Amino acid sequence: MKTLSARQQCIIDFLGRFAQERSYPPTVRDIVSGCDISSTSVVDYNLDILEREGYIRRHPGISRGIELVSRVVASHIRQIPIIGQIAAGEPIPVPAPDAWDVTVSSEMLEVSEDLTRGREAVYALKVKGTSMIDALINDGDIVLMQNVNTVENGEMAAVWLKAEKEVTLKKVYRDRKRIRLQPANSQMKPIYAEPDNIEIQGRVIGVIRQLA
Amino acid sequence: MKTLSARQQCIIDFLGRFAQERSYPPTVRDIVSGCDISSTSVVDYNLDILEREGYIRRHPGISRGIELVSRVVASHIRQIPIIGQIAAGEPIPVPAPDAWDVTVSSEMLEVSEDLTRGREAVYALKVKGTSMIDALINDGDIVLMQNVNTVENGEMAAVWLKAEKEVTLKKVYRDRKRIRLQPANSQMKPIYAEPDNIEIQGRVIGVIRQLA
DNA sequence: TGTAGCAGCGAACAACTGTTCTATAGAAGA
DNA sequence: TCTTCTATAGAACAGTTGTTCGCTGCTACA
Q: What is the complex's ipTM, to 2 decimals?
């Protein structure tokens, strides 16, 4: 990427502002008036350069067919339903099939696609209490979960301990016969469980914490 | 809002899909082919209804001038620059004024407005190492920071300990003469510091962790 | 049976808009 | 001085696109 001329910088800025205010891209002639340029061909000329340098993407022959590539990301927003809470003493709520519906769930969380990585069946839970401290998760945090019944070795999961009637967030490892549940905080010791005492309730794919 | 006809529902869906895939709205004729309609006037007719019912907004005479109002979501998204990393042994990078620029920063993070709460001067840092464990922050986490020099009592801040040449994330309390730095993990003990040994480098407003 | 309203169709117009062509001026280099 | 490259300007063309108009078929209702 070479350095941009003042005019090219102005065009990039204008593209961003325009798309922000209205919700569609500008025409070549919009840019003419927005950047005090006196000919559409000058805009065309500079847009070609900006595309060659990778700042924008053009769609030939299509009106308003200009994309700001750094903003492409903006369209990859995902809405996640917050379907309940997670606490040590109770199993996590199993998401009902219609809970995904945007209109049904009361609270929605908006995250970028690169946090969910395109996974299906993702939902969110609010953490109640400080029992997940050893997973580096505090009271009030929001946990992003994926609705699965099994996890790979080493993945963080919500595990229901049947005998203890307790849910815990741990990294799950299969050691020979037993299951090793390892806290995210490596300073803490793992606990071991019999395979038929645990139930994987979901995979933890992320944590979001809001302070003050 | 009345219930929509199948055709109107199809148009709404198409508007969403189209804007998602490309990053500009469709033309009337795009809708014609996208919804198997045989005349542009039918689209025009139904768009008018959709606008009257409040589902979309139209910009007369402007090509691709159709906004999906229910997807206002896009405007609740904020782009945060990831300007560097935070580790125990080095001061956190002070954001240069132009680091906010979308085109300048290499990596951007997208978060919903309710995470930043409309604050100014917000940036993000990637956590390097496990030295922030007592703040319940792990290696690889992303910390959302606000560029301020002072914080309220009890707020989490990035504190530079001059003598120790170390940055740490703690809740800051002013106790009589000394400053008490309290870990987020309430099981951990606070440390105390002299006022002229510390420098507030920013307020921590959130944490994002991505697993597996 | 006649009327009114809704939904759709096809064609056409006029404005909008991307693109191209020619020309000009300055800077850099041979 | 001549050439080349870059940046700009104005004009024109052709395809794109929003909008309108007349017409048809259907249903409901009196």
A: 0.58
